[in-house]
Design a protein that fits this description.
Elements (H helix, E strand, L loop, with lengths): L2 E12 L5 E2 L4 E2 L1 E11 L4 E5 L6 H16 L7 H16 L3 H21 L3 H4 L7 E7 L11 H17 L4 E5 L5 H15 L4 E5 L6 H13 L2 E5 L7 H10 L3 E4 L5 H10 L5 E2 L3 H4 L1 H14 L12 H12 L18 E5 L4 H4 L12 E3 L12 H7 E2 L1
Parallel strand pairs: 6-7, 6-12, 7-8, 8-9, 9-10, 10-11
Antiparallel strand pairs: 1-4, 1-14, 2-3, 4-5, 6-13
The chain binds calcium ion.
Calcium ion (CA) binds next to loops.
Length: about 400
């Protein structure tokens, strides 16, 4: 079997008045970088690269640099091709764009390999511990006409949080970091009050703080029963991560801005995180996820992937979560404590909800793992064209 074409697609969906904000940026649109790899057997694989950054540089890295290196190669050799692409771009591409591009290609190659063998990707990864994944809702961003006005925002924020519980979630992740910490703690308290004491609450700062501020808000989060504090400090600040982690009793999560086994090695050796969050579509695809997972498990650190983007990235994450062993094994595994959870973004995104012919949907708080060969997904070409940028 030979690779015949490698085609990147840039997808864009403007949000208009549905735009939302994190501590770092506005989201006026949703975008995704997809890659389609065709073979001489007629099998076609899909991959996704990057999480929310601009898709154009990733598309260019694929088109101009990486695609020519794999044309004519056997897609089943994804482990060899990963090393080839990484070695050829190492000098300038150890993090960021090139790894996102390699991630997209790697996911598509595994999709092809699974289809060729007639088995889902999770079977190639060693088999499924579970056929559906406990989901947590990612929502409660900063929304509305004036995102800096906490008073006006609180009722809508509480209503949004309640809507997730009504939809069947018993775990929810919300944002902090855009407002002064006293105001952000009021937001977290409002969400806690809205969802009650029994729904798990996770908080994500998108690296808005220096260590002392992170510890200060962290003590407030502890009092509100928050289970994990995600990206408290910038990803480069390993010392700060350690300082925050040593000062707080809640779990520190991070890693969505980290890449490859090398980046995660440094995160683990520096004792930065209790929970590692590689993004399959950014940190290196399935091939590199296996290595990151192996490293993490040797440190007894759970891996709960960061998930953003289209239905392709979501399907990829479901396959790795199906193949993730309990951490650690117990006779009665509990979600988050011993069992992995899937990040289920609830912000508006047609690329997640409409791109797949069989959309991936929540059922009783869980998301089913695709069963078909490869990624087990089928792209709706009409939707692909509708959102594709020429
Ligand atoms: Ca995050």
């Amino acid at each position: 079997m030979k690779i015949t074409t490698v085609t990147p697609f840039i997808l864009r969906m403007p949000l208009g008045r549905e735009r939302f904000f994190s501590s770092q940026s506005a989201f006026p649109e949703r975008n995704s970088l997809l890659v389609r790899i065709e073979t001489d057997t007629g099998l076609i694989g899909w991959g996704e690269g990057g999480q929310w950054g601009p898709p154009e540089p990733v598309a260019m890295a694929i088109e101009a640099v990486l695609a020519p290196k794999i044309l004519g190669k056997d897609p089943r050799q994804h482990g060899c091709l990963w090393e080839l692409l990484y070695a050829d771009t190492r000098d300038f591409g150890q993090k960021g764009t090139y790894i996102e591009a390699i991630s997209a290609i790697d996911i598509a190659l595994w999709d092809i390999h699974g289809q060729h063998l007639g088995v889902p990707v999770h079977e190639l990864l060693g088999g499924a511990f579970r056929d559906s994944i406990h989901a947590y809702a990612t929502g409660c961003y900063y929304r509305g006409e004036d995102v800096l006005d906490v008073e006006t925002a609180l009722p809508a924020l509480a209503a949004e949080a309640r809507s997730y519980v009504e939809a069947g979630f018993d775990l929810l992740k919300m944002k902090v970091g855009l407002l002064p910490i006293a105001q952000d703690l009021r937001r977290v308290a409002a969400v806690r009050q809205a969802i009650g004491p029994d729904v798990g609450l996770l908080v994500d700062a998108n690296h808005a703080y220096h260590p002392a501020t992170a510890v200060r808000i962290g003590h407030g989060l502890e009092e509100l029963g928050v289970l994990w504090f995600e990206e408290p400090v910038p990803p480069e600040d390993r010392r700060g991560y350690r300082q925050v982690r040593e000062s707080l009793s809640l779990a520190i999560a991070g890693g969505e801005c980290e890449f490859t086994r090398y980046g995660f090695r440094d995160l683990f050796l520096s004792e930065c995180v209790d929970i590692a969050q590689p993004d399959i579509a950014a940190a290196g695809g399935f091939s590199e996820w296996q290595k990151i997972y192996a490293l993490a498990s040797s440190f007894n650190i759970p891996v709960i992937p960061h998930v953003w983007g289209s239905g392709v990235a979501l399907a990829a994450a479901l396959h790795v979560l199906a193949a993730t062993p309990p951490f650690p094994y117990t006779a009665h595994p509990v979600a988050l404590e011993n069992e992995p959870v899937i990040e289920f973004d609830r912000n508006p995104n047609a690329l997640r909800d409409e791109l797949l012919r069989r959309p991936i949907q929540l059922a009783e708080g869980r998301v089913p793992v695709p069963k078909g060969p490869g990624l087990g997904i089928e792209i709706d070409e009409e939707v692909l064209v509708r959102y594709s940028v020429a």
